[in-house]
Specification:
mainly alpha; Serine Threonine Protein Phosphatase 5, Tetratricopeptide repeat; 26 helices; 0% strand
């Protein structure tokens, strides 16, 4: 950046040319007449301002060696700034720290180092450096804004609120501070106060995009019409916001909700079914139409600051590969797009991939909860290779205590009752037994026996302990019992292909039961038919026969363990069946060989965030999704989640 005297706006271009020539001559004169250390520093500063970071680093290194000790701190600060701008954060940290060792009160270095720690998500270190800077320079509003943002990302809402208020005292027209205060109120569930701050920020700066989008998201659950208007204002901003495509999809969803299409009424009776001869189907290579996933609208806030603590939108996970035709005489090759119910008429030509941005209907922040998953249903028994999932019978744990009902001991009580019967006047005039006669003969012995009987402790079974509400324990995460089938032997592919073609046609027409039967028939003739196992897993997944889907995926992986699509589908079936740890493990295997698979990163992050409460790992995978695909359909919702989970 040039000095202010070199950025004067004037219409006298001749004067500007003369001024520039004089300025450049003055700079050259200063550099030429300076010692080597000073010349290197000035040259490095000039290159740094021009964005030439590599040569600037070389000159500033020379300056740190040749300058006097009193001038070295600023040279090290400039060197750290050059490393920072060149994308070398470790070297930048070392240079900044060297500057602070030479001069701990160098305020500009405190600010630069705090910003670097902030960019590296090291928020505690950023808070320490920025706090030190505000002590040295308490009248700098941008520093208070940065400090407040760091506090907000560490969920220190009171400290963040004080820092934002200090920034507003220094500059009441800061929309960033007002937007940040609104985000704090969102975290505190005070939506009315949050709306006030967002609206005030827009009064200060009508085109401030984060506040406008936050306002729309806050209105979304309760007032769709007003939220729709704010969303439209957001996408019309100039320059166009980076996530405008995602917001446009939200607009279309709200419009569809507010203006649903009329329901179709069938006036004609359904056609009667007739017995049709099964003809041999010609195979084609046209891929099935891609699946358009639909879900409830997500919570979305566009801001670099943390916002409400919510999970990313829960969308129906789509399987990645479609049913594919196999060419005769060639090994089966599966394609990479999912088979699912088409959202319109079927087309035979390949269609572009359709992904719908989804929003969550709930705006209130939700913490990850432990969910007890439903066990996978047992698939029906079949006569084909794909057997039904065996039903396991839980065994009694030998270490578990055996609980039996214990009857009360009545013997002492009966003895006491007999003594009382002898004292009952109603028995005085009856016939006396021999024992009673003996007792009369020995009254002292009888009295002593009576006292011993009355004083004998009566032993009852201990009463049950009072009910105590135990501390709730998280439900155990079930694990999937892997069948790990061996690789099936090859069969008669020629006889299997017609059945596969029938299954493929039924699959495309969404006649999933018929498709499943045809795929299983194909597998019966050729157990090594990879595409048949693969598509069987897809069809069973769609009809929620998760046991059969999981087994089919295992057979597909037994045939091709390196198939990323088959393993990805296996992971989705495991996740739906409630085997969350196993689903995460399978997705990690996918990423081991395909680290740039943004869909696998996204699915793994969802499982870790929503099912396993592994927030740190989920955060890294969500960030990887944004790096791999900045225009991801759910990029805005991911950024919202990342802001809420710094």
């Amino acid at each position: 950046m040039l000095p202010p005297w070199m950025m004067l706006a004037t219409k006298n271009w001749g004067s500007v040319a003369v001024l520039c020539c004089v300025a450049m001559g003055a700079i050259s004169l200063v550099i030429g007449c300076s010692p080597p250390g000073t010349r290197a520093f000035l040259e490095g500063d000039r290159l740094l301002r021009q964005g030439k970071f590599a040569p600037a680093i070389e000159q500033l290194k020379i300056a740190t060696e040749l300058l006097a000790e009193s001038a070295q701190p600023r040279a090290w600060n400039h060197l750290g700034l050059a490393y920072h701008q060149a994308g070398q954060p470790n070297e930048a940290v070392q240079a900044y720290q060297q500057a602070l060792r030479l001069n701990p009160n160098l305020a500009v270095t405190r600010f630069n180092l705090g910003c670097l720690h902030f960019d590296l998500n090291n928020f505690p270190a950023a808070i320490a450096e920025l706090s030190a800077y505000t002590v040295l320079e308490p009248k700098t509003a941008p520093a208070w804004l940065k400090l407040a943002s760091a506090y907000l990302r560490t969920r220190q809402f009171d400290a963040a609120e004080k820092s934002y208020q200090t920034a507003l005292q220094l500059n009441p027209a800061l929309p960033e501070a007002l937007n940040g205060l609104g985000l704090i109120q969102i975290q505190r569930k005070r939506l009315r106060e949050a709306l006030t701050f967002f609206n005030t920020a827009l009064e200060k700066q009508p085109n401030y995009a984060p506040a406008l989008l936050n306002l729309a998201v806050t209105y979304h659950p309760q007032n769709r019409l007003l939220a729709l208007r704010k969303y439209r204002e957001y996408v019309e901003l100039k320059p166009r916001p980076p996530d405008s495509l995602a917001v446009e999809e939200i607009i279309r969803q709200i419009e569809a909700e507010l203006n649903p299409p009329p329901r179709l009424v069938h006036t004609n009776p359904p056609p009667a079914l007739t017995n049709l001869a099964q003809a041999k189907v010609a195979l084609s290579n046209a891929p099935a139409p891609p699946r358009a996933t639909t879900s409830p609208p997500p919570t979305l806030v566009a801001s670099a600051l943390p916002q409400s603590k919510t999970s990313p939108p829960k969308s129906n996970a789509s399987l990645e590969r479609p049913a594919t035709d196999a060419k005769p005489g060639t090994p089966p090759i599966a394609s990479s797009t999912p088979i699912a119910p088409p959202s319109g008429e079927l087309r035979e030509e390949p269609l572009p991939r359709i992904e719908v941005v989804t929003l969550s209907n709930d705006f209130a922040p939700k913490l990850p909860q432990d969910v007890t998953p439903e066990p996978p249903p047992t698939p029906p028994a079949t006569n084909t290779l794909l057997a039904a999932t065996p039903q396991t019978v839980p065994e009694e744990s030998p270490s578990a205590p055996l609980i039996r009902s214990v009857a009360l001991r009545e013997k002492p009580k009966s003895a006491a009752r007999r003594v009382l019967d002898k004292l009952d006047p109603r028995g005085w005039f009856g016939r006396k037994s021999a024992a009673a006669t003996a007792a009369e003969r020995e009254p002292a012995a009888q009295e002593r026996a009576t006292r011993e009987t009355e004083n004998r402790p009566v032993r009852y079974a201990p009463p049950p302990a009072p009910a105590v509400n135990p501390r709730p324990q998280p439900p155990p995460v079930p694990r999937y019992p892997y069948r790990s089938p061996a690789r099936p032997a090859a069969g008669d592919r020629a006889q299997a292909e017609p059945f596969f073609a029938q299954g493929l046609r039924a699959h495309r027409e969404r006649r999933l039961t018929s498709a499943i039967e045809a795929y299983r028939a194909a597998i019966k003739f050729d157990p090594s038919y990879f595409d048949a196992h693969f598509n069987l897993g897809l069809a069973a997944f769609d009809v929620k026969d998760l046991g059969q889907s999981l087994l089919a995926c295992e057979y597909a992986l037994a045939l091709d363990a390196g198939s990323a699509d088959a393993r990805y589908n296996f992971a989705l079936a495991l996740e739906r069946a409630g085997f969350y740890l196993d689903a995460a493990n399978e997705l990690e295997k996918v990423l081991t060989d395909h680290s740039d698979n943004d869909r696998a990163h996204f699915a793994l992050a969802k499982v870790q965030a929503e099912r396993l409460a592994q927030i740190d790992s989920a955060r890294e995978h969500y960030r990887r999704v944004l790096r791999l695909n900045p225009a991801h359909p759910e990029a805005a919702a991911i950024r919202y989640w990342l802001a809420a989970h710094p």
